[in-house]
Amino acid sequence: MASAQSEELVLKGTLIGHSDWVTQIATNREIPDTIVSSSRDKTLIVWKLIYDETNYGYPLKRLRGHGHFITDVVLSQDAHYALSGSWDKTLRLWDLNSCKTARRFEGHSDDVLSVAFSPDNRQIVSGSRDKTIKLWNTLAQCKYSIHEPNSHTDWVSCVRFSPSNNNPIIVSASWDRMVKVWNLANCKLKTNHIGHTGYLNTVTVSPDGSLCASGGKDFKAMLWDLTEGKHLYTLDHNDIINALCFSPNKYWLCVATGPTIKIWDLENKNLVDELKPEIVASKAKHRNSNPCVASGSNQLPIVNVFLSNK
């Protein structure tokens, strides 16, 4: 179903290069013709997009170093560095110019499931199966480790910084069915968001930092007000929610659920579009909203690239 604006996303191409599941992708408007993907093949691939009619891109560089599945990858705001987390219990900071590991972060006692850069690139946060959240500087020094009594009681599946300087927080999601909001200055608990009835896979923060959305195995995308600390509403789905992201320039939420990507207009709570590539486990969207990139993960080592028809 398309909106009245008739803006649809169409599949432009498939990038093939990984030898196992694609777990995450990252984009940055500073390098609009480049994306970075992570995989269970223990590598990251830097892709060059070429917008050709028959070939949409190719692997430019492959980054090796992790000893187990790579679960997450993000790019720094200046696009000079990539940050990855792995089942080898470490994070790695990669220099994208040299394609070498700049820093290796050790401290988690179990698989690292999620990583993120702060908006100023000076801090890094990670979440792990060891049930902790760790805040690091870029020298790989752990500054805070959030654990009991206020920490999550199960795996920390996703961590994100708010992009807003007016509300410096970290938001986390866990298999304990909780979304937690932490004060960035001291890593103290600010808010518990309670309402999910299944394990949580993902959380995302809106570009202005006012909202977050969470989703997981209860088939629900829940919207939360980060300013007032309350639940706003719920978008029901028919399958597990694997990934979420807000549009950078529209009041839209993209939801990767089962074999589809659903795009919701949050203003009127209408479904704008529904894309049906391979089963989607991660996705990213350029901050200028073009292109929208989705990676399939139903045992297929591919990245699908979608582009607006406008």
Automatic annotation (TrEMBL):
The GO cellular component terms are: ribonucleoprotein complex; ribosome
GO molecular function: any one? Answer: translation regulator activity
WD repeat start and end residues? 15-49, 63-104, 105-137, 149-192, 193-234, 234-274
Write down the SMART domains for this protein, in alphabetical order.
Answer: WD40 (SM00320)
SUPFAM superfamilies listed in its UniProt record: WD40 repeat-like (SSF50978)
Q: Which Gene3D superfamilies match?
A: YVTN repeat-like/Quinoprotein amine dehydrogenase (2.130.10.10)
> Is Repeat among the key words of this record?
yes
Keywords attached to this entry: Repeat, Ribonucleoprotein, Ribosomal protein, WD repeat
Q: Which PANTHER family match?
A: RECEPTOR FOR ACTIVATED PROTEIN KINASE C RACK1 (PTHR19868)
Q: What protein family does this chain belong to?
A: Belongs to the WD repeat G protein beta family. Ribosomal protein RACK1 subfamily.
Mind telling me what this protein is named? Small ribosomal subunit protein RACK1
Tell me which species this is from.
Answer: Blomia tropicalis (Mite)
